[in-house]
Design brief:
This protein has 252 residues and is an alpha/beta fold. The protein is built from eight helices and nine strands. The protein is globular. The relative contact order is 0.17. The structure holds guanosine-5'-diphosphate and magnesium ion.
């Protein structure tokens, strides 16, 4: 995609408005979501949109108290992809030219968004994928089997997508909102309601010939507090299937 589309989008945004809406999905993350927002960049280019997916522990109230620009509340749990989709849609209504993601369970370092955005803009790229596995990236805490799992996953994803991505599961991402307007992209499909949505958009960005870059970031494993809501092989399959189903033409 030419950068002129992005530049046109930028010029549609009022100068005092945020450039990037950072969507933070959160399911029962009280105690953590406030920490995430306390570390959110004090940089007017960013705003935080938290999607509270039927939490019953006060996650949404904590997010509001800690400065989220918007908290979207789902009364019933609809899945992480469904939550992210709603966050992105709200961001597009707010005319944000860039969308981003951070985890709500304090696994990323929010201030790293600043350097990432600078890198994305400097490279005139369309999509930035965070990676803990490239030079400058970090892992804090014991990953258990996840270190290996995320690397093997990334190799399989790369083969299917046709481009090397070192950390395809990493939820640290920034991309142009315009990618979601591409005719081949349809995020309104119910099979994307869970962990499938993020790899779906990454795959589409690569196959759509957008300029994709990787950028180092930190991933923290809070071993005692817990760091995932994923449940076994079923959720790994949801992460894996978009690239496979799209590559084989089973889904679009
Ligand atoms: N809104 C919403 N958020 C979810 C759901 N499942 C997980 N999350 C959030 O999405 C983020 C990443 O999820 P997590 O299970 O920790 O993924 P992992 O760290 O990649 O294993 C966390 O902030 C979770 O609270 C869900 O069903 N709905
Ligand atoms: Mg997590």
């Amino acid at each position: 995609m030419s950068s002129s589309t992005g530049d046109r989008q930028l010029s549609r945004t009022a100068p005092d408005q945020p450039l990037v809406a950072v969507i933070i999905p959160a399911l029962n993350e009280a105690g953590k979501i406030g920490r995430v927002l306390d570390k959110f960049p004090k940089d007017g280019r960013f705003e935080a949109i938290v999607v509270d997916d039927g939490s019953d522990d006060g996650t949404g109230d904590e997010a509001r108290a800690h400065g989220a620009a918007l908290v979207i509340r789902h009364e019933q749990r609809g899945g992480v992809g469904n939550a992210i989709r709603d966050g992105w849609k709200a961001a597009i209504e707010r005319k944000r030219p860039y969308l981003a993601l951070l985890s709500g369970d304090d696994q990323h370092v929010p201030s790293e968004m600043v350097g990432a955005l600078d890198a994305l803009l400097a490279a005139r790229a369309d999509y930035l994928q965070g990676s803990r596995w490239i030079r400058g990236g970090h892992v804090v805490g014991d990953t258990g089997g996840r270190g290996l799992g995320t690397r093997v996953y990334s190799i399989a994803f790369s083969i299917l997508a046709g481009r090397r991505v070192t950390d395809a599961t990493n939820g640290f991402r920034i991309f142009r909102s315009a990618i979601l307007d591409h005719p081949s992209v349809d995020i309104d499909q119910s099979w994307l309601d869970s962990y499938d949505l993020e790899p779906y958009v990454l795959y589409k960005a690569i196959r759509g010939k957008y300029r994709v870059i990787e950028h180092p970031c930190t991933v923290v494993y809070h071993v005692k507090e817990g760091y995932t809501k994923m449940r076994g092989l079923k959720d790994w399959w949801r992460l894996f299937r978009p690239a496979l189903l799209l590559r084989t033409g089973v889904k679009r």
